[in-house]
Amino acid sequence: MSVPTQGTKWNPMGVPSPSQHQTAERLHAAVAAKPQGVAAEAASGARSGPPWEKTNKITPSLSRTDLRRLAYGRRAESRKILVRHAGGETLGFEPIKLPRCARCGQPVDTGVGVMTNGEKARFTGTMLCGSIWACPTCSAIIRHERAHEVALAIGNHAEKLRKAAADQWQAEHEGQRLPPELMVSDSFGNYIFGTLTLRHDRTMPLAMTLDAILKGWTKMINGSPWQRASERWKIRGFVRAIEITYGVNGWHPHIHFVMFLDGDLDDGQREAMQQWLLDRWKTMVKRVAKAYKKKDGNPYNVAPNDEHGIDLQFKSGKDAGTAAAEYITKIQGDKGGVTLAQEIARGDIKDGRMGSVNPFQLLDSGCLGLSDFQREDLWLEYWQATLRRRCITWSRGLKEDMEVEELEDEELAEKADELPGLVGYVVPNRVYKDIRKSAPETLADALDAAEREDWQEVARLLPGGVILTDEQQDAIADGEAKPGDYLPTMSVMV
Length: 494
Hints:
Elements: H1 7-10, H2 20-33, H3 38-43, E1 57-58, H4 64-85, E2 111-116, E3 121-124, H5 136-172, E4 190-196, H6 206-220, H7 224-232, E5 235-247, E6 250-261, H8 267-289, E7 310-316, H9 318-328, H10 341-345, E8 350-351, H11 372-386, E9 392-394, H12 398-401, H13 409-416, E10 422-428, H14 429-438, H15 440-451, H16 455-461, E11 466-467, H17 470-477
Antiparallel strand pairs: 1-8, 2-3, 2-10, 4-6, 4-7, 5-6, 5-9, 10-11
Helix pairs in contact: 2-11, 4-15, 5-9, 5-13, 6-8, 14-15, 15-16
Pfam family, one: Rep_1
Family: Belongs to the Gram-positive plasmids replication protein type 1 family.
GO biological process, one term: DNA replication
């Protein structure tokens, strides 16, 4: 059986896409020959931080403005690639059938408002794509919200364990004062931060390795063996996230997870658990990989070895769990200590090890010494392979158990976009669209100025618009008017 073609599953527009094998052979070899590009040098620097920061280092700290400019520029680059992939612009118009992530930031009204609450700013009257995989702007929003969910669950888990322990103590010591250690939840909760990998090389297309890792995980955590293991090691549930990097050995998808334990494990139990998970992981990944064959008919060897297939770290206490959760979901440029939620959910901001990069860095000119055409082919391969995939998932019932609301990625993006505040400036649709295409970083600069409530600077950056009066701002806030209503008639003509 050959590697599945992209077909309608990966390319709903029906546009021919690059051959996976051609991409592997032409592009991965180019990276192997140039491992010391600018991005590679930045990614291969020394790492620091808590013990669980072993898989990746966080991109060197950038200011909030710089990170926003980077995200807007990368979003525009992705859009250009996807527009060309869909047939290119005709008479100045984009193709009708564009993926949702290529339309992110597109205006949906005659005027685009600039809103702020004095601390944060955003545009109104534009669409959000809600893609955690392929949109540099929405990914940051969604991952930030996912990190909050994981941290909330860990806090609730610790409190549930504390309450159970306090109830048991009071039942045994009726009438006595509760000990101080049972009054706070900080010391409760045991967690496992884990990483699962598979063997990969330059000949393997991302669609195959990603499929193997996702299906391998699904098979691993299903069935009676997993149920018995969960009971044996007191596993209440887990949060699982996929991270993908690219480097000299091609695509490297891998899994990060946090397991919630209802009790501590001794050294013997920890050792037994690690060996059992590794054996089951290898078995399931090999089983999935049997469905794929190289061009020469031989099977791919994706089974990890004992040394690199799994990494488990056992943590106790609410703070340790929260730290790991934050590291899973960490956004690029976040400052401070790395904690377990950031490692799970924030694959958009971490540089890979050994000179590898995260996929968004492929949108940067000069990344890994690749040509623009090579970067474009790699980005298309990544976009196609991740379509309709879930990046961050929870075990069944855990969200409900931990009192975390169930929201899809698009819902999270829209929820986070509901920033309270007032629209202080409105720019014509046509001006905003031109800047979005030709100078996307200017949009980030305008938001930075809006956060300072410097509307003259906003007007300079986004010319042709109107600075709104207090009465006009209130009318929009009350739903009595739209931002575009205050534009001169001529300015809204396209």
